[in-house]
Amino acid sequence: PGSAAAAAPQFAVGAASGTGGTGAPAKLGVLLLSQGAPDSAVDLESYLFNIFQDPEVVTIPKSVLWAKTPLAWAIAKSSAAGLKASTDGLLDAVSISESQQLRTVQQQAAALEAALRERGVSASAFIAMRYWEPYIPQAIQAIKEARVTHLVILPLFPQFSLSTSGSSLRVLEAALDSDADFGKIQNTVIPSWYKQPKYVDALARQVVDACARVRDAGNAAGAASAAGMAGEGVAG
């Protein structure tokens, strides 16, 4: 799946980078990165276009690069139409569930700020979604307005992949090159955390709890999904 250093070499992994600002009192920020989700079924086509337009998701030869945007729209329209036809009303329920992703991340951001305060660390948490609002440029603007001097970048994907965390890091890296004010902020990135013991324990507890609800747990089978699945989609 690649590496964080290869995806965004201007970011420091586990150590601060950047010019450090003007000597003003340090202000810590934490940027939470996620994929984002459409607010409703109406937004699905535009959301899918954003995904298929991403060069980390769909790569085409330079000789036909001119066709990328119309190709992304064509795939998005076809995929959206197929989902709407196959789900027969389920899509609206799924979209409502997916629109809760932002609220969940907002709750995580608030909990993170509180946990850091308990440890004597004052920090402001910011949220950036790759394919839906709030987009990364919106988060960067908020970070600059807050006069953050040190930024910790935390992807909410446990494992690193070029098509998830890597894609967002590339957008941030481009901002370092084009935005002098953003480039002054010291930064460090946490590329992955899938081996964190508490995370592994949380997954294990969920599996144990699920097995406890199955009558014949000895013959139960598990299914791992990278992006989540609607319960109705796997019933039976």
Automatic annotation (TrEMBL):
Sorted alphabetically, which InterPro entries does this protein's record hold? Answer: Ferrochelatase, Ferrochelatase_N
For biological process, the GO terms are: heme biosynthetic process
Look up the domain of life of the source: Eukaryota
Any one GO CC term of the record: mitochondrion
Question: Its Gene Ontology molecular function terms?
Answer: ferrochelatase activity
Q: Which NCBIfam families match?
A: hemH (TIGR00109)
Q: Which family does it belong to?
A: Belongs to the ferrochelatase family.
PANTHER family linked: FERROCHELATASE (PTHR11108), FERROCHELATASE, MITOCHONDRIAL (PTHR11108:SF1)
Name by which UniProt lists this protein: Ferrochelatase
Q: Please give the organism.
A: Diacronema lutheri (Unicellular marine alga)
